[in-house]
Amino acid sequence: MHVLEDWPNNFHRLLDDYTKPTDGQTASLRIYLQEIHQALSRLLVHPELQFLRYEFEQHVHTRWRDKLILKDELRKGHPIMSGAEAAQRLKLPVRALHKLVEQGEIKGCKVVSAQGKTSWMVERASVELFAQNEHDLLTMKDVESLLRITPNRIRLLAENDLLKAVPRSSDRAPWMFKHCDVNALLERLNHGNLSITPESTSLISVWEITKRWMQGREAFLAVVRALIEGGLQVEGRTPAETGLRALLVSREQFRRWHQQYRLLRGFYTVPEAAEHIKMDPNLLYQLISKGLVHASQQQYGYEKKMLMGIFAKELERIDSSYVWGKRLGSLLGLSEHSAAKALLHQGIRPICGPTIDNVKCYFFRCSDVLAAFAEAHAFNRTETRAP
């Protein structure tokens, strides 16, 4: 049965077949329809899918008397309201509401459906705060309800000029904000673009990023700056949330950005470090196990999981202190194998190598190789001057 054919009759027939309720037994409502109600309430939250929720609630109201799912509490609990509902709440003409949204006094956006129908969606919290504080400033608690982040993070944004705050007379004075400035920050984050598929696994929410991956003050600021500057592009927002929690970015793009964020802070995974200094990864692991290279665990993983890697300064030390492989051969003007054999013949002992501890290639100190160069050069000069 295709439920969209003969709408809404086929949809109601499907629900009838799914539940087969008995008169007077409300258990059928709770047991058989709970999963469907949760799916419609939590997952299908995009405005274009509200017709499904509406017909489902009408079905329940018709077949289970006195068991009304269609309640004001459910409607008022949704973080988004229609433009008409918002205008009614504020006792304003709809056009006046549209002007307030365009001016940034109220957070909202214009949505165009696939059929070309235009509608206005408004943040419920923004409307309520405007109604309560039409001519007043917003407190920290008010801004918390709009941005859905902690007061500490709100102060952090204000202190770093990412969120404009009202000038304070002293350090002890409370933080105050203008409603339009809070909305301006959300606009800079592309907050008005609703996502049709907010539950897609290809997307990750900013809430999950800052909760699971990027903990701490510096990391939070880095995420917000990346969102503003375009390093992380907002793909859309979920209608089920408000503030920064509603923002969605590409999961693959975040992984690439997070890797670059870590590398810019000078921390490389072992494979990345091996590629950076042009060394075989297995050789680098062997050097780490022998204590010749210092590796450490850092919190760059999911939910504070530790990631083993090497800092850039340690890689610089390795690159300037040791010579190996093709670089050793080019230094002596020989092949890699011949260069190592020549140094061994001169009595220069490598740090490690195939004949010493089964390490893949010979690893020499630069100072030892340079000393051998100097000695060979001095010997050649003596030989040349001899009669």
Question: What does the secondary structure layout of this molecule look like, with pairings?
Answer:
Layout (H helix, E strand, L loop, with lengths): L8 H11 L7 H17 L6 H14 L8 H6 L2 E3 H8 L3 H10 L4 E5 L5 E6 H9 L5 E2 H8 L3 H9 L16 E2 L1 H10 L14 E3 H8 L3 H13 L4 E4 L9 E4 H14 L2 E3 H7 L4 H9 L6 E3 L8 E5 H10 E3 H8 L3 H10 L8 H4 L5 E3 H20 L2
Antiparallel strand pairs: 1-3, 2-3, 4-5, 6-8, 7-8, 9-11, 10-11, 12-13
Helix pairs in contact: 2-3, 5-6, 17-18
Description:
With 387 residues, the protein is mainly alpha-helical. The chain is 53% helix and 12% strand. It contains 20 helices and 13 strands. It has helices at residues 9-19, 27-43, 50-63, 72-77, 83-90, 94-103, 124-132, 140-147, 151-159, 179-188, 206-213, 217-229, 251-264, 270-276, 281-289, 312-321, 325-332, 336-345, 354-357, 366-385; strands at 80-82, 108-112, 118-123, 138-139, 176-177, 203-205, 234-237, 247-250, 267-269, 296-298, 307-311, 322-324, 363-365. The strands form 5 sheets. A 3-stranded antiparallel beta sheet has the order 1-3-2. The protein has a 3-stranded antiparallel beta sheet with strand order 6-8-7. Strand 2 and strand 3 (118-123) form a beta hairpin. Helix 2 (27-43) packs antiparallel against helix 3 and helix 17 packs across helix 18. Residues 22-28, 66-70 and 378-386 have low confidence and may be disordered. This is Helix-turn-helix domain. It comes from Chromobacterium violaceum.
